[in-house]
Design brief:
about 700 residues, Beta-galactosidase, Chain A, domain 5, TIM Barrel, ten-stranded antiparallel β-sheet, 37 strands, binds 1-deoxynojirimycin, binds calcium ion
Length: about 700
């Protein structure tokens, strides 16, 4: 108690000192958010953020050190400032809502160093109704052309020991379970040691966490820190000072320890802080999208959100293999590969998935393990494992495409790079021409393992540029993209509307290949963290909750079956997989009806109630239609929810089909129990939903004809 009081006192004193020395530069406000800019005697610019008269971020310094000890954070004076305000509305190519309002006040602060070097630095701040964004801009100047960032010194001096939902500052993987702790308790060593991540783990700073970082103050304010428009720069992680609750930007280094190689004039990504006293407003914020550049093309009719099934879970669960032979050297006397008899990506099996998709309102079929190389790919650090155009002998590309087309289904390409990003870049043109030639409209990419050859990190500047080059190349070739093992998204799907989804978090697959899987709270945290940056390919829809893994019979998901349905609404993605095996869906065709019906593109979205780590309920209106879909999920604790239906069109009657957990459902004891009921409802009514422990509810609302 005494320790805490002293810490608070120290904080107040230091805050007071900073305030006392600093000269006011400017102040901007929008609704409940206020930004103050000051400069201290030493010539460092500080910003602070207030929400409804509460200080959220105390004065926090800004700037850089460049390599060779070049100082770009002290000795500045403000030469001028410019302001402007914007209020516009734009339409995303696809998304959670039809119209997005971009409403902000902007100030650009022009800084110049007084010393002989006279370095110039601009900092641009935007104040929105729900938070602030700021970015650094290095103007064209005589003494700074090519330069290297040694450290970004951006501080986020928080004003309390907030409850925080965090994953460790790993440079290569974001596939972690979240820890909920106070800022003063952040210590990632245990998590990194225990992680079952399939990338190579490097997290040298025990107090570093990744963004989007979600926090809740003791007086009920929700604070989210992330970044927008991560281009030509490394991902920002945050170092947490456990005593002062000051966070400092900590950029992911390259293979040599440098942070970013830049060429003036240039900008950094935006640093974002979103604040509300209402949890639902955090995932509803459109600030990150607004801070990204508009779409690079207006020719977007080929970009089509869709549901898909895949030759995938059967390999994840050990029923089949990606590889055609058991070993790379399993060849016969003529040098031909000897089949192992378990290769899933064979023409006959793929046709089964095509038939299933075609019969069930599912547009796409993904096939993994179709191309040669899978005998020897995992963790091998080899350059040229895959060429992305050579099928195994039992996979007949032409026949599969012919068959799919005849059934109104499209095929989704798979390009696993096994971390060899350079090899992939060399082959990009060939790979995308192959997709164009055979009519694959979309590709799922992957970067399992260490990035070779130089050992760059998944979240460093080099790979950030790689992912963008891939998105750009895909755009050029009219290919939609779904990246696995990329950097976590920062809203670039606005600029590249073909960059439909990313994994970039711990997906449903961990329930297959790890013992602990994903805990029931996991999916209630993701909307406040990972999903802040963009859609996730979580691969929902597993119906067989227990006993699916042939190599680990006790393994089970930590959700009910109905919660898997609700994820189609709560885990937004324009590419949404129905991840289970067709036979598991056929056996429960009545529950599968929700997946058949649910949309993947929306005119409207409302987050009805939410608490990170506990529950979330979302309703969405199907694009161009009158149908609504509801998804409600909870953590390990069951709950009930009264849903006011006033989001429905007034005066219209709807058939509500309610997919609910069974009366005795429980994610551990009885996860597959469900009940389906129908009711006629309208906007004046309400629904009472009961969610089991680890459960959910899914509802479709279709107007009565
Ligand atoms: C990891 C991906 O997340 C998973 O979906 C894929 O099946 C494997 N890599 C193989 O590429
Ligand atoms: Ca993965």
């Amino acid at each position: 108690m005494l320790k805490k009081a002293l810490a608070i006192l120290a904080m107040v004193v230091s805050l007071h000192e900073t305030m006392a020395q600093n000269a006011q530069v400017s102040s901007l406000s929008m609704k409940n958010i206020k930004l103050d800019l000051t400069i201290d005697n030493g010539g460092t610019l500080f910003y602070s953020v207030t929400y409804k008269d509460k200080k959220i971020v105390a004065p926090s310094e800004l700037g850089f050190t460049l390599t060779d000890g070049v100082d770009m954070h002290t000795g500045f004076e403000v030469t001028s400032t410019e302001t402007r305000s914007v209020d516009e509305t734009w339409q995303p190519v696809w998304g959670e809502v039809k119209n997005i309002r971009n409403h902000y006040q902007q100030i650009t602060v022009h800084l110049k160093q007084k010393a002989a070097t006279h370095y110039l630095l601009d900092i641009i701040f935007r104040v929105f109704e729900d938070g602030i964004g700021f970015r650094y801009s290095f103007p064209l100047q005589p003494d700074l052309k090519y330069f290297i960032i040694a450290d970004e010194l951006t501080h986020f001096n928080l004003t309390g020991d907030h409850k925080t939902f965090w994953i460790p500052g790993d440079f290569d993987s974001n596939e972690y379970k979240y820890t909920t702790s106070l800022l003063s308790q952040v210590d990632n060593r245990d998590m990194v040691a225990k992680s079952t991540s399939i990338a190579v783990r490097i997290a040298p700073d025990a107090q570093a966490v990744q963004t989007p970082l979600m926090m809740k103050s003791s007086d009920g304010l929700y604070i989210n820190i992330h970044e927008a428009a991560l281009v030509n720069y490394p991902a920002m992680q945050l170092h947490v000072d456990r005593k002062t609750f000051h966070l400092t930007s900590s950029l992911v280094p390259d293979a040599y320890g440098n942070k970013a190689y830049l060429h003036a004039p240039c900008n950094t990504p935006w640093r974002t802080i979103i604040v509300s006293d209402n949890a639902t407003e955090i995932p509803a914020s459109k600030m990150i999208l607004n801070l990204n550049d508009p779409a690079k093309t207006t020719n977007t009719t080929w970009i089509k959100p869709m549901k898909f099934v895949g030759v995938w879970w059967e390999m994840q669960t050990g029923k089949g293999t990606w590889n055609y032979s058991d070993f790379p050297d399993s060849t016969d006397a003529k040098g031909k590969l000897i089949p192992n008899g378990k290769h899933s990506a064979n023409t006959a099996n793929v046709k089964r998935y095509i038939d299933f998709a075609s019969a069930n309102n599912i547009k796409g079929v993904l096939v993994e393990g179709w191309n040669t190389g899978w005998e020897d790919w995992f963790g091998k650090w080899k350059e040229n494992v895959f060429d992305f155009v050579t099928p195994y002998p039992d996979f007949d590309v032409k026949e599969i495409i012919r068959y799919a087309t005849s059934k109104g289904v499209v095929m989704i390409m798979h390009n696993e790079t096994s971390g060899s990003a350079t090899n992939y870049e060399r082959q990009l043109d060939t790979a995308y021409r192959f997709m164009n030639k055979f009519g694959y409209p979309a590709v799922k990419t992957g970067y399992v393992g260490r990035i070779i050859p130089r050992g760059e990190h998944h979240d460093g500047q080099w790979m950030v540029n790689h992912y963008e080059r891939v998105a750009e190349k895909a755009l050029e070739h009219h290919v939609m993209i779904d990246m696995h093992e990329p950097m976590r998204p920062t809203g670039l799907q606005r600029t590249y509307p073909n960059w439909m989804a990313n994994e970039a978090a711990r997906g449903n697959e961990f329930n297959a290949f790890s013992d602990d899987g994903n805990p029931p709270e996991h999916e209630t945290i993701l909307p406040f963290t990972r999903l802040m940056g963009g859609p996730m390919d979580y691969t929902p829809g597993i119906f067989k909750i227990k006993g699916y893994a042939s190599y680990a019979p006790d393994r089970q998901l930590h959700t009910t079956l109905v919660k898997q349905l609700a994820l189609y609404v709560t885990m937004y993605s324009p590419l949404q997989m129905a991840a289970d095996l067709p036979q598991n869906y056929t056996e429960r065709s009545d529950a599968f009806q929700f997946i058949r019906d649910v949309a993947v593109d929306w005119d409207d979205t409302k987050i009805l109630e939410a608490e990170p780590g506990d529950y979330i309920t979302i309703v969405r209106k199907e694009k161009g239609k009158a149908n609504w879909f509801l998804g409600a999920i909870t953590d390990e604790h069951g709950r009930s929810a009264n849903i006011n239906l006033d989001f429905l069109d007034k005066g219209k009657k709807y058939i509500a089909t309610i997919y609910a957990d069974g009366a005795t459902a429980d994610y551990q004891k009885n996860p597959e129990s469900y009940q389906i009921t129908k009711q006629t409802v309208d906007a004046l009514g309400s629904l009472h939903l009961v969610l089991a422990n680890g459960g959910g509810a899914a509802v479709s609302f279709v107007p009565v004809k």
